[in-house]
Amino acid sequence: MTEGPTCGSCLTLNPVGAPACVRCNSALPVPGTAPEGPPATLALAPGPPLATSTAHQPRATRSSDVWRALSPLDRRRLNRRVQIVGLTVIATLLLLGGAALWLTRPRLVDTGAVAGEIAQRLADRLGQPVRLSCPPDITRRRGTTFTCTATDSTGGRRTVWIAITGDDGAYEWQLR
Q1: Whether 75 contacts 64, CB under 8 Å
Q2: Is 95 found in the same domain as 148?
């Protein structure tokens, strides 16, 4: 495996053919040219051995350094992944929100249907048409009670008491 040049400023091992250091962006020596600096015969004080392995390279500390180091194809792939993850998160939140709204919606009695059925029974019993008016938005829960007003064709008014007897909307009624 061929190793690239080492940066003289930050001692980062760079890829082969890189014109500048991937960490500090300083110019790298071009192969085949004389290195700048002291002649090679100058003896330096012995120090710790330099790492020559590519297994451990210093990581870029800024996200802009990482972004610049990516090829255009890798940038497109990364952008696509970010978009997919973002859209997946948004879709999941929308689905969970919709499910929460659906499951916690109020269960209401269809008072129009109840009024129609009771009015028909009263009309059959009394032998004349009866109109029933009930309050809207009655919760469909066992034990809930409400009253409706029955008006016959002569203008007479009576109260109809209605009690919800089951969570499924079953009810009992009495003419009072």
Answers
A1: no
A2: no
Here the tokens at position 45 are 């004080």
Half-sphere exposure of 13 (CA within 13 A, CB side): 12
Any idea of the CA torsion for 130, 136, 139, 141, to the nearest 10 degrees? 0
- Are the CB atoms for 125 and 118 separated by under 8 Å? no
**Strand, coil or helix: what is 73?**
helix
What is the pLDDT at residue 85? 96
Low-confidence ranges of the chain (pLDDT < 70): 1, 32-61
CB 159 within 8 A of CB 149: yes
Q: Dihedral through CA 74, CA 75, CA 80, CA 84, nearest 10?
A: 100
Q: Which residues lie below 8 Å from residue 112, measured CB to CB, with a gap of 6+?
A: 134
pTM greater than 0.70:
no
The 3-state DSSP class for residue 3 equals coil
Last residue in a domain, options 60, 87, 102: 102
Rounded Cα–Cα distance for residues 176 and 168 (Å): 25
Backbone φ/ψ region at 11: left (φ over 0), alpha (ψ -120 to 50), beta:
left
Encoded amino acid at 30, one letter? V
Residue 132 located in a structural domain? yes
